[in-house]
Amino acid sequence: LPAEVGAENYSARARAVLAVSRYYLGIPGYRLQGYQAMLGVPVPDATQWDQIEAVGDCAYKVFEQLEQVAAQGELMFHDDTAGRILALLKANRDIVAAAQAQGLAAPRERTGMHTTALAVQGGAHTAILYYSSRRHAGENLQGLLDKREAELAKPLAMSDALASNAVVDESQLIRCHCLAHGRRKFSDLEEVFPHECQVVLDVIRQVFDHDEHARKEQLSPEARLAYHQARSQPLLETLHQWLAEQMDGRLVEPNSALGKARRYLQGHWQTLTRFVSVPGAPLDNNLAERALKLFIRQRNNSLFFATEHSAYIASVLTSLIATC
Question: Apex CA 117: angle with CA 120 and CA 50, to 5°?
Answer without folding.
Answer: 115
